[in-house]
Amino acid sequence: MHLVELVALLAVVQYLFFAVLVGRARGHYGVKAPAVNGHEGFERIYRVQMNTLELLVALLPALFIAARFWPAAWVAGVGALYLLGRFVYWRAYVDVPSRRGLGFALSMVPVLALLAMALAGAVLR
Amino acid sequence: MHLVELVALLAVVQYLFFAVLVGRARGHYGVKAPAVNGHEGFERIYRVQMNTLELLVALLPALFIAARFWPAAWVAGVGALYLLGRFVYWRAYVDVPSRRGLGFALSMVPVLALLAMALAGAVLR
Amino acid sequence: MHLVELVALLAVVQYLFFAVLVGRARGHYGVKAPAVNGHEGFERIYRVQMNTLELLVALLPALFIAARFWPAAWVAGVGALYLLGRFVYWRAYVDVPSRRGLGFALSMVPVLALLAMALAGAVLR
Known about the structure:
The structure is a homotrimer of 125-residue chains. With 125 residues, the first copy, chain A, is mainly alpha-helical.
């Protein structure tokens, strides 16, 4: 098992799952392409996908660079917390956008931890 | 020749080409920054760029992780299908957004295939 | 010191810094999630973050592939120019969006240079 690669791929799968929900919401709420506005129900899940894209771009390089300097099990464990945090974020944002803070923190803190691990490795070793 | 790296770089070049078209459409349709709305012609090409960004973030890690476990020619071949699918998507979306399905499928299926190849490698080997 | 990894991580940190500014601008300008429109001050910093995301997705693969074929100090040096260009872009865009051209060029040209270096390496070596 390649744990770090597995976590990276699961983060991509989770993100594509949110993208599929956006596609379904287009039909459900009648928001026709190229519009990305017009119904708050659509906008919420669209923002979940976009925010996940925004974090994924930070997560993946941090994850792979951290894995060059730290044990794979540690790096994959922190990455797994990110996956969990994103699910919490999704459920909260779709229910009540103003309550997305906890899920956001649960997915942002692992990204910052991996960035710190990667920076420490890149500078000190 | 490093085929996998070449396909990854061509995917980035194709994406930047769409970004250049968005910049030109700003002038052509009179959509001034920071707005990204206001004229459907602009919004169509902007959505092509954004959707390509959304897929590229999934394609690149899937491509490079798949290449660790499978022959470079196979991985690069699937990646080349993605490039073709994105061109079909672009032409269709700009003409008639509702007909973007074929090009979308032609670029999404290779991403899913590379993800499956990468996941199989990361879990089984 | 791992210079290429350091530049990649600093590009991610810079991008997350812009994301934090977007979060603060939500409160400052009263733009409530899931909206990303409604006040030009918010839209400007939001566009800085999005445009940086758009470039980062091109920068990171170009940087790492270029580093396989060229000396790390050259690759990291070009990447450092990108970091500088993004700071210039940010300051200009927030002040006067129409004057963002110089900062954009200062960050886009290094991305294109790294892409050219990576393509030359992938094709010729």
